[in-house]
Design goal:
The chain is built from 10 helices and 21 strands. The chain has 324 residues and is α+β, with helices and mostly antiparallel strands. It has an 8-stranded mixed beta sheet, covered by helices on one side. Strands 13-14-12-17 form a 4-stranded antiparallel beta sheet. A 3-stranded antiparallel beta sheet has the order 8-19-11. A hairpin with a 2-residue loop joins strand 6 and strand 7 (100-102). The model has no long low-confidence stretch (mean pLDDT 95).
Amino acid sequence: MAETFVQTQFLHQKFYNGIQFPSVLSPDPKTPLSLSRFTQAIKTQKAFLDSLLHKSGAVLLRGFPVSTASDFNDVVEAFGFEELPYVGGAAPRTSVVGRVFTANESPPDQKIPFHHEMAQVPEFPSKLFFFCEVEPGSEGETPIVLSHIVYERMKERYPEFVERLEEHGLLYTRVLGEDDDPSSPIGRGWKSTFLTTDKNVAEQRAAKLDMKLEWVGDAVKTIMGPIPAIKYDKTRQRKIWFNSMVAAYTGWEDARNDPVKAVTFGDGKPLPADIIYDCLKILEEESIAFPWQKGDVLLLDNLAVLHSRRSFNPPRRILASLCK
């Protein structure tokens, strides 16, 4: 075991083929640790941390001296992954410091369904970090689930449906207002989605994402796809459930959007509601959720793991950072 990091077990883990999900690392109690020593340890033990993430799909760093957004930014920087700007994502977010921004700022009574981060756009992060700056008053967990397990269970239960998904992919449609709508979980306006106030620049940036735009006054309808719904994870040699199907169908709802129209088969045909809700059940059954503690840093492999958010009683402040 690499020094500084002690692998621990906790109640909320699952085991798949003897592998902990998530892997949990805590500081060695015999070694007092400052933030600078922690970030140095990340750099020197990067190979160990990378292999653990590859094996488990999720690594929770708990009990380390990370208190502020700036500390968290230092931790993210220490890992050395390249930053991915948040272009094309749906969630309303605010930049905080360096590479750090708020996680989805939708109201606390709303759940955010399971999704791979930005699975509905061609350039998605390979890894993402979450940091608990303020513990939730209650609830507010970030459940996680292994994508290949979801694929295997769906393939076993609905082979024809999965075959259609593999053949046609998915088409995502979303209407964006001009400005952010903090009351909606998908309330990011087109100006902050494309990081511009100019419609022509927005069109150019959308084209780079293979996204079609249809302007409706100051709002815009975005059409993405067809995009593959099932991917092959080459590094682990297995198929994964890499899509935003359940999230879009059950959660892309606000004054501008009807979730049933938000996602269809790639050929435009509607998706069967009963299968989508059963998929949601499978996601819940296979997921794990742990109560956040202040200072927790959760590193996810975005190809291996889907995540969601439970409703909560404030306060709660979870910060995030995306990596290429």
